[in-house]
Amino acid sequence: MGTSGLTSLTDLTGIVAFTSGLLSFFSPCVLPLVPSYLVFISGITFNDYKELQSTKYRGIVLIHSLAFVVGFSFVFVTLGLSSSVLGRFLSAYQTYIMRIGGFMLIVLGLYYLDVIRMPVLDREKVIHLQRKPVGLFGSFLVGITFSLGWTPCVGPALSSILIIASTSEDVRQGVYLLGLYSLGLAIPFMVAALLFNQLFSLLKRYGSVMRYSVKILGVLFICIGVLFFSSFWGVVSSKIGRILSL
After folding, report:
1. Which residue has the higher pLDDT, 13 or 65?
2. Which residues, in sequence order, are CB contacts of 96 under 8 Å at separation 6+?
3. What HEC string does the chain produce?
4. Would you say 193 and 65 are in contact if contact means Cβ atoms under 8 Å apart?
């Protein structure tokens, strides 16, 4: 699959990357901890937010949340660029890369569906910061720490998008896909920052969405993995791309 062919696949792969980021946010080991992250990076408690002028504190929470988002996006996009560079370097072995990648996507999908267990991913690897570094740069560093340390939920989805990016000969594709993955993760996080004072009640009411998001990711990655492994990804992608462009 050459670079020219990839141009027509951008829409579908972009949708997959964005959806993966969105569903990653609603996974069981990200969504419940969002309030804690917002408190940690902004230094504002829920009591402060409720008792004092909420409009004043909303801006503080939002700007620190934005710095946090930029932090994890920086790492994800850098990984995407590296993955595409590697894919271009190994472009002569594109067919084998797609089949190996397809197999890995199927395995990750089965992991999400609890069909198989992967002890490496089951072990929670979180880098804890005892104290947040001062200021917006500190929130940026916490975002970097989040992206590097949160393996169980973000890791498999992130790995799947990196696998897709590695099948491209265009180094820009990795930046594009991981940028969209980061955007999918960032949008609900910023919405959560806007609804900071209502977050606990919303989580209590809609928290059940977490168990469905992981299953949807599992089905999505199995379908993509089968298409990769069978070499039908290009055919299906181009047809869906034509439909989306109508």
Report:
1. 65
2. none
3. CCHHHHHCCHHHHHHHHHHHHHHHHCCCCCHHHHHHHHHHHHCCCHHHHHHCCHHHHHHHHHHHHHHHHHHHHHHHHHHHHHHHHHHHHCHHHHHHHHHHHHHHHHHHHHHHCCCCCCHHHHCCCCCCCCCCCCHHHHHHHHHHHHHHHCCCCHHHHHHHHHHHHHCCCCHHHHHHHHHHHHHHHHHHHHHHHHCHHHHHHHHHHHCCHHHHHHHHHHHHHHHHHHHHHHCCHHHHHHHHHHHHCC
4. yes
- Answer yes or no: are the C-beta atoms of 227 and 98 closer than 8 Å: no
**Number of alpha carbons in the 13 Å side-chain half-sphere of residue 29:** 17
Q: What's the pLDDT score for residue 71?
A: 93
Per-residue pLDDT of 57-104, as tens digits, reads 778 888 999 999 999 999 999 988 888 888 777 777 777 878 888 898
Whole-angstrom distance, CA of residue 130 vs CA of residue 123: 21
